[in-house]
Amino acid sequence: MVSLLQSLRGGAYNQHQSSIRITALDLTRSKTLCAVRCKASYGTSSDEEKGDQKKLRILIAGGGIGGLVLGLAAKNRGYDVKVFERDLSAVRGEGRHRGPIQLSSSALGVLQAIDENVAKQIMEAGCVTGDRINGLADGISGEWFTKFDLLTPALRRGLPITQTICRMELQDILVNSVGFDILTNNSKVVDFIQDFDKVIVILEDGRRYKGDILVGADGIWSEVRTKLFGLQEAKYSGYTCYSGITNFVPPYIDTVGYRVFIGLKQCFVASDVGNGKMQWYAFYNQPPMNTDPTGGNGKKKRLVELFGQWCGEVIDLISKTPEDVILRRDIYDRDMIDDCWGIGRVTLLGDAAHPMQPNLGQGGCMAIEDCYQLVLELDKSVERGCDENVSALRSYEKKRRFRVSTVHAASRMASKMLASYQPYIELGSSPLRIKAPMVHVARAILQVCMPLFMTWIIADPSFINDS
Ligand SMILES: Cc1cc2nc3c(=O)[nH]c(=O)nc-3n(C[C@H](O)[C@H](O)[C@H](O)COP(=O)(O)OP(=O)(O)OC[C@H]3O[C@@H](n4cnc5c(N)ncnc54)[C@H](O)[C@@H]3O)c2cc1C
Fold this sequence. Notes:
Blueprint: H1 2-8, H2 11-19, H3 27-33, E1 38-39, E2 49-50, E3 53-54, E4 57-61, H4 65-76, E5 80-84, H5 89-98, E6 100-103, H6 105-114, H7 116-125, E7 127-128, E8 133-138, E9 144-148, H8 151-157, E10 163-166, H9 167-178, E11 183-184, E12 189-194, E13 199-203, E14 208-211, E15 213-216, H10 223-229, E16 235-246, E17 256-263, E18 266-274, E19 277-285, H11 298-307, H12 312-319, E20 327-333, E21 346-348, H13 363-384, H14 389-420, E22 424-426, E23 433-435, H15 437-459
Parallel strand pairs: 4-5, 4-15, 5-11, 8-17, 15-21
Antiparallel strand pairs: 1-3, 2-3, 6-10, 7-10, 8-9, 12-13, 13-14, 16-19, 16-20, 17-18, 18-19, 22-23
Helix pairs in contact: 4-9, 4-13, 6-7, 6-13, 7-9, 11-12, 13-14
Protein name: FAD-binding domain-containing protein
GO molecular function: FAD binding
Pfam family, one: FAD_binding_3
């Protein structure tokens, strides 16, 4: 296995990467549909109408991962699309710290289906981790708990291999591909009005835009969601997350992609992110809005308190990270919306619809998959006629529900398991510890279930439903 993994890195890997394609999706559909137009069903406006034919007009609130990918997919299919972003520099402002994001095979496959050239740029800018050993390890001993094979399922399905990419680079590639004729910055969506044949978006500065549908891709604190379903409190996950990035090449870099070190009520995720850098996330179970020791190196001091007894791999990463690139945030998610994610001509996508805890690294991937399912449903509705737009939105929500709910539930379950993980039995004040018997049981279960579940997440053939 390892020799296969190693041989796929370097030139052999690149050759492979550029030759594999998503097979589940019909790429020709996008080309033919660029020409598809539907009859105008309401009043004309000069720049929107070509004779009596009108393009489907898609309004998107939020230019994050989901909003930009949807904007790109809609643009490539010839739809009339506008993306309204509150503040594009938010990723950049935090970007030094927010660091890379993992994109799994399914999400990369979807990106290829949406735009081969953009997918290529993303894959060239990223760092492949799925061709090495990835998995869970014990935080104190460093001993592997279970390993996931992210490579074989991807190869079997003809999908790209899981990789990480810097969020700012991902944003740059997507923004440039979408273009500023479609994306408008400094445009906060504050409200919308819909009736039987249109929806109007209202921006903070009073500007109004008319469209056929509105997609709320405005993240976990979505205004569109609040307008649709009323104000609901986000749920605190129980965890604060510290993240950091460091110019440190550990000795295991050629064999390990990412490793999640686990301990009681805390875990530490370390990932190679390419260009001689390692990214890490440290999760710790504590009430929200806790504070770190004041003075210089406060976050590092706190991290040393929390992880100082852990294995060398964890301690090295913390100690080699400068204080000013360590970011701390409390992690929230929301319950899944029981029924539809939208009403009438309005729907939600990505974190606006289903914010999840980041422990499986899937929130962004699910947003990307949402985009493709949504454009597939819109394509079908355009083929059938404009009045089908509303049912296309409901169909998209229905088809995404099972997969997204499963990943959402698994993310919550993972953090609950962490809260009860008790690897050792302490023997009073003695420095000796013995392994808790349940650890062996848990490990056996995880060794069977985790690889199956990871295969389903990253490369299940039904992750997009084209029926
Ligand atoms: C610590 C951490 C690590 C993570 N790691 C991963 C990972 O490895 N892989 C992965 O797939 N996911 C990961 N995620 C999850 C991922 O970041 C999110 O799921 C993803 O960003 C969701 O994309 P989105 O487009 O739905 O929302 P966002 O990326 O949050 O984008 C929403 C956009 O809408 C804009 N906006 C908000 N309100 C308005 C408004 N009223 N009007 C206009 N614009 C508005 C915002 O400025 C923002 O640009 C991680 C999350 C965290 C917290």
